[in-house]
Amino acid sequence: MTITGEIRSSKRRSGPPRLKITSLEVLCGILVLALLFQSRLVDLLDVPKLRTASTVFVAICVQAMPFLVLGVLISGAIAAFVPASALRRLLPSKTALAVPVAGVAGIALPGCECASVPVAKRLMQQGVAPAVALTFLLAAPAVNPIVLVSTAVAFNDTPMMVVARFVGSLLTAMVMGWLWVRFGKMEWIAERALARLGDHSGQNKWAVFAESARHDLVDAGGFLVLGGLFAATFKTFVPVAWMQTLGGQIVLGVIVMAFLAVILALCSEADAFVAVAFSALPLLPRLVFLVVGPAVDVKLIALQAGAFGKSFAFRFAPATFVVAILCGVVTGVVLL
Amino acid sequence: MRRETQNILLVLLGGALLKISFSGLYLRYVQKSLLPLLIAAGVTMIGLALFAIIRDIRRGKAADDGHEHSHSSRSTWLMLLPVLAVFLISPPALGGDVVNSAADTNQTQRSRNLLGNLPSGDVIPLSMTEFVTRTAWDESGTLDGRRVKLTGFLLRADGATYVARLAISCCAADARPLKVRVTGDVPALPDEQWVEVTGQVVPKSANEKNSWVPSFTVESFTAVAEPVEPYES
């Protein structure tokens, strides 16, 4: 009683009543509730399927976080240390020519798809043409050396798979870039993604670096977790056992493997090991799996929706999906 | 979401990463080689948050207090989920559920360096991966008549008993199941109990029809604690 009285009186003293509950109080509330009901929560999750799903969820988040952190650090560094004019000088002035350059530049970012989203967004903010930034976004997770080496290790019997994956993914990224040059509309991309940074000339560069990295991390982290939730749910509850029966049907195999790449949301450094395990399938569907996976999956769609807005992600992801399947099939038919 | 709350979330998430790194629990979720990256990520997150907090305190108030970033505020809350999962639930390593529902059991690859001669000795400890690979690919029968020790967890399905283990290449989401059918004197241990089994392979027991699951005649069974590294890599 006395406590409420005190609060009321202090309110009155501080002028107009401000009963605003901020996120800080909500956070504390959630934490206290979670602690109170911890054992109830643990019991609730003590079903084999849910246990599996929660482990896979934590695994995906834990696995992806370091790469997201790497991505936001690079993004922050670009914001602080690379002036927009330097980027413009580095890239060919004609967008259609800059697209392949961006694709090949993807080789230099040794991470998986989580790292490339914040970097691509930052490139756009620094005045790089969206088509170029998007090509980089699609190419980087698939053509970097770590991914190629792990593919070579997984497919040690068929070295052409590495070449096919490289060509297929690079082709996908460049075709998407050129498609954007031709058909893309700026208004699909959320304004916040394109908003130039304010003038930092007076500020300490390291402060700009840390603040940009922190802001990007907070922005993208939630979407990464959302993608992890989807992937863990699909992985646990979609029965994959029937896929072994697809063996001979190549068209069906390609389509199913493409969808599987989207819903499993595997890290591009690990997907080759999973693809190699589908030994009942011919190489072509497995190549499509490797080309589609790094370009479009549920985790990536969530990250893109967060970075560039929903209306962008819902156009870009399906288009990438179709282009990646076509590029994968064409490359596979020619090379494998 | 307010800037202060974001910073607290970052500290919590970074703390969660550091917690699983230093307690060794990260091995339930990811490969051993990710450890340095995990620690670096945790430290960076906490560092970025502390930098912002200290800066705000020095300036007397949060830089963009008031204009809450409406677009990011709701999704950022999701960052709390892995924090709660790690600190409160601490999900166990994957086990029998994954093995039972998997379609790709015992899909191994022929690899030349794995199929050399076995070391000499009375009992040879082998990883499940190597054992299953040899039973599937090694035509010369190097395993026949040799006493082998395997480590895995027990699993009963369709009236048979198996010793199973999962192998990962990156994180638990890409786990591949390996299993060996055990015959002989199987003690009444619960499912998912970790065991060390010593025995011999039944020659030519792995074939395409039983999806390359070899049979194993057990001579001795020892219940053991879950290994620090629950997965093979």
Give the tags:
heterodimer, A: 336 residues, mainly alpha, 17 helices, 0% strand, disordered N terminus, B: 233 residues, alpha/beta, OB fold (Dihydrolipoamide Acetyltransferase, E2P), 2 domains, 5-stranded mixed β-barrel, 6 helices
Strand content of chain B: 15-25%
H/E element string of chain B? Answer: HHHHHEHEEEEE
* H and E string of chain A: HHHHHHHHHHHHHHHHH
Low-confidence stretches of chain B: 64-71
Q: Residue-averaged pLDDT of chain A, rounded?
A: 84
What is the oligomeric state here?
A: heterodimer
Structural class of chain A: mainly alpha
Number of separate domains of chain A: 1
Q: Number of folding domains of chain B? A: 2
Number of strands of chain B: 6
- Total beta strands of chain A: 0
Distance linking N and C termini of chain A: 79 Å
Secondary structure tally, helices of chain A: 17
- Averaging pLDDT over every residue of chain B, what do you get? 85
The major pleated sheet of chain A works out as: none
Global morphology of chain A: globular
CA radius of gyration of chain A is 23 Å
Count of runs of 4 or more consecutive helical residues of chain B: 6
Return the structural class of chain B.
Answer: alpha/beta
> Approximately how much beta-strand content do the residues of chain A carry?
under 5%
Termini Cα gap of chain B: 40 Å
Outline of this structure?
The complex is a heterodimer of chains A (336) and B (233). Chain A is mainly α and 336 residues long. Chain A has helices at residues 2-13, 23-36, 38-44, 48-81, 84-90, 95-105, 113-125, 130-143, 145-154, 160-183, 191-194, 205-237, 250-264, 271-277, 283-295, 298-308, 310-335.
What would your notes on this structure say?
- The complex is a heterodimer of chains A (336) and B (233).
- Chain A has one domain.
- Helix content of chain A is 76%, strand content 0%.
- Chain A is built from 17 helices and no strands.
- Chain A has helices spanning 2-13, 23-36, 38-44, 48-81, 84-90, 95-105, 113-125, 130-143, 145-154, 160-183, 191-194, 205-237, 250-264, 271-277, 283-295, 298-308, 310-335.
- Chain A is globular, with a radius of gyration of 23 Å.
- Chain B folds into two domains: 3-91, no CATH class; 97-223, OB fold (Dihydrolipoamide Acetyltransferase, E2P) (Beta Barrel).
- Chain B is built from six helices and six strands, in the order αααααβαβββββ.
- In chain B, strands 2-3-4-6-5 form a five-stranded mixed beta barrel.
- Residues 64-71 of chain B have low confidence and may be disordered.
- At the A-B interface, α2, α3, α4, α12 and α14 of A face α1, α2, α3, α4 and α5 of B.
